Amino acid sequence: MWATENTREALWDAMKRKEVYGTSGTRMTVRFFGGWDYQSADLNNRNFAWVGYQKGVPMGGDLAKAPVGKAPTFLVAAMKDPLFGNLDRIQIIKGWVGKDGKARERVYDVAWGDADKRKPGKDGKLPPVGNTVDVATATWTNTIGDPELSAVWKDPDFDPTQRAFYYARVIEIPTPRWTAYDQVRFGIKMSPEVPMKQQERGWTSPIWYTPGE
Q1: Can you give the pLDDT at residue 64?
Q2: Mean pLDDT in residue range 104-119
Q3: Which whole number is the average pLDDT over 43-61?
Q4: Which domains does the chain have, with CATH numbers?
Q5: pLDDT at 213 over 60
Q6: Is 143 left (phi over 0), alpha (psi -120 to 50) or beta?
Q7: By three-state DSSP, how is residue 168 classified?
Q8: Beta bridge pairs of residue 31
Q9: What is the pLDDT of residue 65?
Q10: Are 202 and 185 in contact (CB under 8 A)?
């Protein structure tokens, strides 16, 4: 969670305003802000969080009625856990309820590692980051992916009359699963159907958009 200080009161306040994120076990660092005026230049500001708070709301926050002619922009950044894998990509997931009353969801890749040699295909999908896992020794190398990723992203499909929520998901490169470590530690052979590698990840609290009444 993002708190102003390490006290019971500040930690409680952070949970109450939902300025928190979770992971599958890794200790990556994630910041996520939403507003109407973020620009690519904001990524170069030395005080990233200050810009985030000044121009918008953090994870767990609410965006009010959209200014005329504007779509929400999001400022997101992530840094790897020093002891785990590099980062594969950052995604922003948008959720809304369609006119048919059914829940909808769309995933956008907004930043990714090895961007100089990995591009979305004609279908818009990003190729896999690759795999360096050696199952036999339960090891991997950080020769793919990036240690840090960041992006400013604007919703290209924004409807100012429609309620929506957005959250960030950060995915690491493949690393050995606990089953691979146990196989090496105990000198056993896992069954073929047992997964031996995984991609750790983190998820932020959503940022909500509500149209004006």
Answers
A1: 85
A2: 96
A3: 95
A4: 8-112+143-171+200-209 (2.60.40)
A5: no
A6: alpha
A7: strand
A8: 77
A9: 83
A10: no
